[in-house]
Amino acid sequence: MTTALITGATAGIGAAFARRLASDGHHLVLVARDEKRLREQATELHDRHGIEVEVLPADLSTEEGIEAVGARLEERTHPVDLLVNNAGFGHRGAFLDVPVEDELTMLKVHCEAVLRLTYTAVAGMRNRGRGGVINVASVAAFVPRGTYGASKAWVVQFTQGVAHDLAGSGVRLMALCPGFVRTEFHERAGVGTDNIPGWMWLDADRLVEAAMKDLDRGKSLSVPDPRYKTLTGLVKLAPRNMLGGISSRTGRKFGPR
Ligand SMILES: NC(=O)c1ccc[n+]([C@@H]2O[C@H](COP(=O)([O-])OP(=O)(O)OC[C@H]3O[C@@H](n4cnc5c(N)ncnc54)[C@H](OP(=O)(O)O)[C@@H]3O)[C@@H](O)[C@H]2O)c1
């Protein structure tokens, strides 16, 4: 029996990870800000799968939140074997339309929290000679897409770099790069989705299934789904300024909330 800690576990991709890992028999530590929602989810997963579920309410845009999750990762009596750094969000607006404080909050959650939690988790995993970290990035990492894309590009570079450093230690790290997934993400950000073609949408449970297979195979980068594998292949060949235009026309409509 192993234990997995998932940040942003109450909705979307994080909730899909929680369902999948619970059904595989892992104990869970669920992290998000909304404590009531965390407790409801914990009860449901415990009742359905008979696993132990801890809830850890924390805001990863704050020092206290990062420290609280870090303290759980340092616990030696019930170590965390798999960390899923998934919590994240989008912004409503292009650069200069978003207050710089909000851009910094995004970097705190997407980059600083991911760095600090990975650091703490991996230190214990290396000592135990086993463990895994999945850092949820995005295909936006591969196109010019404001602070969001830049933060996710950091997640990819960081994760693959650490995976290389820890090769042979028994600890696996993988950056997961989803395309558009039907979750609460776009509604929370106030981003309109009418211009995103139906074929571009992915299902969160299938995404997680593919991600877990890629982790088992020892990949350090996972781009689930053949559609997005092809698109990211083409992106490598296209000029950067052209990519910026396409990226802005697809999925970046800052419509009414
Ligand atoms: N949906 C997509 O199309 C898509 C595509 C590529 C990558 N991604 C990435 O996938 C990850 C998950 O996104 P999602 O689509 O599943 O979004 P979602 O449905 O909006 O879920 C976001 C989760 O993160 C938690 N969260 C947000 N801010 C937090 C904070 N400051 N501290 C702790 N928890 C926080 C939320 O719970 P609380 O509000 O209770 O804290 C919620 O559980 C993100 O990193 C996102 O960038 C999403």
Automatic annotation (TrEMBL):
Any Gene Ontology CC annotation: membrane
Cleavable signal peptide: none
Key word Secreted present: no
Top-rank taxon: Bacteria
One Pfam family it belongs to: adh_short
Oxidoreductase keyword on record: yes
Record key words, sorted: Oxidoreductase
Alphabetized InterPro entries for the sequence: NAD(P)-bd_dom_sf (IPR036291), SDR_fam (IPR002347)
GO molecular function, one term: oxidoreductase activity
CDD domains assigned to the protein according to its UniProt record, in alphabetical order: SDR_c (cd05233)
Family to which this protein belongs: Belongs to the short-chain dehydrogenases/reductases (SDR) family.
Stated name of the protein: SDR family oxidoreductase
Organism of derivation: Streptomyces xinghaiensis
